[in-house]
């Protein structure tokens, strides 16, 4: 069993709870061990960076040092913002000697080791590289009963670092889902921004960005959007009712995490995948992810 | 970009109640105090300091999230 250190981040303990539940269920089904970092702290996200850059790097560095101390080589960060901030800290500590020295000195003062040897990883990349599409295909337990989905990667896991996937036309989520029997559509807006926290601060702009994403997915005949980021999921999920009221257009798409879609086809317990936490698309979700048909067949 | 934003906030160049700057400041203070961020508390503080009336528009979504246990009043 491969062992990974797990950095949940604050969102997965809030609006992204379904992401955490489905991630843990999926990794369990795949025989991958996730051990939560003890006493982790907020990564700082982009907001902290906007006030105090030096301390922002220290927040992330502490988490990486905790992983190093726990002798874990790979830190899995499912939230795109957490992934980016942790990865950026690691990169900047090497690239800019002043930042590296500041981080090293502060970690030493807290009796924590340096950042060397820890790899920041996103679960999409772990599944793609460590498990692989072929293995996923072999492990399929349930047929996909839903319609085609649009894979939405967002901005942060593919820019500026390319370990998770290419920045212009990422395809790894599509490849994994296709291998698992989930049909995907060509979605040109797969890396266009959802607005991030703008839906909370400059609401109209954020809603507008999500409207464009939803409209294009529907135009491509996608029946759901699958994403890798808790903030993207929340924005696309929560904005639909307001978009319906504002435009008169009918949007009721399930916005799923890729871990929910894969977890379903790989046979994870549907109750553990957090489908009931979605706001939009509940009718489709109930149709697609109900085990009633399976149970009826088993009974016959 | 962060450098510009940081400088603008430090110099007080932005309108006092600009939600983007208020969010960054509240986030910063919350993480400094508690080590982690609570979405519910953050949004509430941001709204109260920038424009409390935007909370009215958030009630419906907030209630749905609360019913689905996607937000909690206490930090987890």
Which helices and strands, and how do they pair?
The complex is a heterodimer of chains A (300) and B (76).
Chain A: E1 3-6, H1 17-29, E2 33-36, H2 45-49, H3 53-69, E3 74-76, H4 80-95, H5 97-109, E4 119-121, H6 123-131, H7 133-138, E5 149-152, H8 172-179, E6 184-185, H9 198-201, H10 203-219, E7 224-227, H11 230-238, H12 240-247, E8 255-257, H13 258-265, H14 282-288, H15 292-299
Parallel strand pairs in A: 1-2, 1-3, 3-4, 5-6, 5-7, 7-8
Helix pairs in contact in A: 1-13, 3-4, 3-5, 4-5
Chain B: H1 2-11, H2 19-34, H3 39-50, H4 54-67
Helix pairs in contact in B: 2-3
CATH topology of the largest domain in chain A: Rossmann fold
First-to-last CA distance of chain B: 31 Å
Shape of chain B: globular
CA-based gyration radius of chain B: 14 Å
* Biggest sheet layout of chain A: 4 strands, parallel
Give start-end ranges of low-pLDDT stretches of chain B: none
Mean pLDDT of chain B: 88
Q: Report, as a whole number of angstroms, the end-to-end distance of chain A.
A: 37 Å
User: What would you report as the Rg of chain A, rounded to the nearest angstrom?
Assistant: 19 Å
Helix/strand class of chain B? mainly alpha
Number of helices of chain B: 4
Pick out its properties.
heterodimer, A: 300 residues, alpha/beta, Glutathione S-transferase Yfyf (Class Pi), Chain A, domain 2, Rossmann fold, 2 domains, four-stranded parallel β-sheet, 15 helices, 8 strands, 9% strand, B: 76 residues, mainly alpha, 4 helices, 68% helix, 0% strand, globular
Characterization of this structure:
The complex is a heterodimer of chains A (300) and B (76). Helix content of chain A is 49%, strand content 9%. In chain A, the strands form two sheets. Chain A has a four-stranded parallel β-sheet, sandwiched between helices. Chain A has a four-stranded parallel β-sheet with strand order 6-5-7-8. Chain A is globular, with a radius of gyration of 19 Å. Chain A has helices at residues 17-29, 45-49, 53-69, 80-95, 97-109, 123-131, 133-138, 172-179, 198-201, 203-219, 230-238, 240-247, 258-265, 282-288, 292-299; strands spanning 3-6, 33-36, 74-76, 119-121, 149-152, 184-185, 224-227, 255-257. Chain B has one domain (16-76). Chain B has helices at 2-11, 19-34, 39-50, 54-67. In chain B, helix 2 (19-34) packs across helix 3 (39-50). Chain B starts with a helix and ends in a 9-residue tail after the last helix. Chain A binds chain B through residues 10-11, 13-15, 17-18, 41-42, 44-53, 55, 59, 197, 200-203, 238, 241, 276-279, and chain B through 2-3, 5-6, 9, 19-20, 22-25, 27-28, 31-32, 35-40, 43, 46, 50, 54, 57, 60-61, 64-65, 68-72, 76.
